Amino acid sequence: MTDETKARFLAGIAAQVPAERVAEVHLFGAIRQGGQESGVAVVAVDREAAPTAEAATNDAIEATEAAEATEVDDVVEATDAADAVVDTMPTRYTVYTARFRHTLKGPERGKWELAVTEEADAPLLTVDAVVRGVSRRSGEADETIRLSGDEFRAALPEPARR
């Protein structure tokens, strides 16, 4: 993937997901075939509202309501237990797959297609493990590039940065 293609791909991703919340991007090696170049990336994005925090709040409220008839110490204990559950859960990220296809030859030369699709939510360790597995099976482990969120934002052309 040329630097120009990489910059265009990253800018296209930034146009569809909030660049300021991107935690990491995994770029797989591009493939040239039949006058076209195509590439894939996996993008992990911080979620706006972490459901684990909401769940902890809901758990604390439920615990408080259930304990209204009991002593105050029971309420504090229930709230502490809900907080402990949140602290042990790994942070989950929204995972997107980004794909581009660039026509290099033929009557549609210069045509650029980009699709960014939300796929799942998972902790970064899971995202990394899946990316490593796909890279290993494809035989292109050396061609996969990992960018941190800061590296992703720094690689964007100036107008695409948010």
Overview of the structural elements:
There is one protein chain. The protein is an alpha+beta fold. The chain folds into 2 domains: 3-48 and 92-160, no CATH class; 51-88. 43% of the residues lie in helices and 28% in strands. The chain contains 5 helices and 6 strands, in the order αβββααββαβα. Strands 1, 2, 3, 4, 5 and 6 form a 6-stranded antiparallel sheet that branches. Helix 2 runs antiparallel to helix 3. The longest helix has 17 residues, at 72-88. It is globular. The two termini are 24 Å apart.
Structural class: alpha+beta
Q: Number of DSSP helices?
A: 5
Largest sheet properties: 6 strands, antiparallel
- Element-level helix/strand string: HEEEHHEEHEH
- Tell me the strand percentage band: 25-35%
Q: Determine the fraction of residues in helical runs and give it as a percent range.
A: 40-55%
3D shape: globular
Distance between the termini: 24 Å
| Count of domain modules | 2
Name the poorly predicted regions: 66-72
Total count of strands: 6
Summarize the SSE layout with pairings:
Blueprint: H1 3-16, E1 22-27, E2 31-33, E3 36-46, H2 51-66, H3 72-88, E4 93-103, E5 112-122, H4 124-138, E6 145-148, H5 149-155
Antiparallel strand pairs: 1-3, 1-6, 2-3, 3-4, 4-5
Quick take:
With 162 residues, the protein is α+β, with helices and mostly antiparallel strands.
